[in-house]
Amino acid sequence: MLLGVDGFEVCRRIRAASEVAVIMLTARGDDFDVVGGRESGADDYVIKPAQPTVLDARIRTVLRRRYRL
């Protein structure tokens, strides 16, 4: 739902240039989209609406795994 490029491509471009943690937060929640997000390089894929406490926990988990915090 981005202009001119989809989130999968944005994630691929980020992943090609960096190892920064990527969490996709999206309204697209069918299995095809979840798999596509993970295969494009996302560390996690969160479907909206997401409770703030759940989102916070998932962010902390990704950061802990990626950066060994």
From TrEMBL:
The keyword Lyase does not apply. Keywords: DNA-binding, Phosphoprotein, Transcription, Transcription regulation, Two-component regulatory system. Residues 1-63 form the Response regulatory domain. Transmembrane segments: none annotated. Pfam families: Response_reg. Coiled coil: none annotated. This is Response regulatory domain-containing protein. It comes from Actinomadura vinacea. The lineage of its organism: Bacteria, Bacillati, Actinomycetota, Actinomycetes, Streptosporangiales.
